[in-house]
Amino acid sequence: METLYHLIEQYGLLIVFVNVLVEQLGAPVPAYPTLILTGALSASGRYSPAVLLLVAVCAALLADYVWYLAGRRYGRQIMSRLCRISLSPDSCVRQTESIYLRWGARSLLLAKFIPGFASIASALSGTMGTRRRSFLLWDAAGSALWAGLGIFLGSLFSSAVDDLLNVLAELGHYGMLMIAVALAAFVANKWWQRRRFRKSLEMARISVDELNTMLEEGNAPTIIDVRSPLSQQDGRIPGAVTISNQEIQTFVFDGPVEGEVVVYCACPNEASAALVARQLMRRGYTRVRPLTGGIDAWRAAGYAIDV
In this predicted model, what pLDDT tens digit does every residue of 64-77 receive, in sequence order? Predict the structure, then answer.
């Protein structure tokens, strides 16, 4: 533990840069403990708070810019992939598009404080065609706010942080073990939250082939498109009705209770579609199914799209 303490004292700026960079690239390695720790050390004069903030912002901006470029090149594919690997349980393309459509590039100012949105905000900016200058400006401001708060908290509670470090140093190898256990517990908790979220969305699905057969035979169910208005501009499944951003929690639906309903979205694991399907079931609809693979699977199968 004493070795780690000396490493932080000597190479704190490098550790902050690597930790923030890795976290913002998507690894489940929280950077806030490092920012708070080095913030506490800056209060005793070991680091310059301004330099510490600059290093953290540069690391965050570099990682975010990588995702921004990926979003511009690969579009929604990169966002869906990020949602699938993210440990945040509520990462969802529809949710993040709703926030971004409302606030635009300004949403980057608080993006890192919003669960789910933080993990794919940069890629979303590229996908939405945000200007590079606007992205860099708002993302730098948001990174400064996020990192600055961690450094400020560290300096504010520097005495408590010093006491904690002293206790861990006295524990020696057990102190290192406690840090490792805490990190493992953090990752495990995130994984468990995501697992519970996905478990809550388990229900019967309908395949795109089944839905297309129903449409061809004239037995069309009520089809609900729960994507954001921006995504809906790319086309919808024939006959689909839409739910706006504002209505996803309190939407009005007047279809017959005994009728069949198919809900689709563009989220990984059909997250938004399954959430809406659950709401319909609570209202008494028993024949509700999300569309497996959503609109992407429908397009991939080559079926008709209404523009």
Answer: 999 999 888 887 66
Q: Quote the domain boundaries for residue 139.
A: 2-200
pLDDT at 87: 47
Q: What does the alpha-carbon distance between residue 275 and residue 72 come to, in Å, rounded to a whole number?
A: 29
Write down which residue in 169, 200, 231 finishes a domain: 200
Which sign, positive or negative, has the C-alpha torsion 126, 132, 135, 140?
positive
- Please report how many Cα atoms fall inside a 13 Å half-sphere around the Cα of residue 183, on the Cβ side: 14
> Residue 152 half-sphere exposure, CB side, CA atoms within 13 Å?
6
* Same-domain pairing of 109 and 213: no
Q: Report the predicted TM-score, pTM, of the whole model to 2 decimal places.
A: 0.67
Among the residues of the chain, which ranges form H helices? 2-24, 32-43, 49-74, 76-85, 93-103, 117-127, 132-156, 158-171, 173-200, 208-216, 229-232, 271-282, 294-300
Contacts of 47 (CB under 8 A, 6+ apart): 12, 13, 38, 41
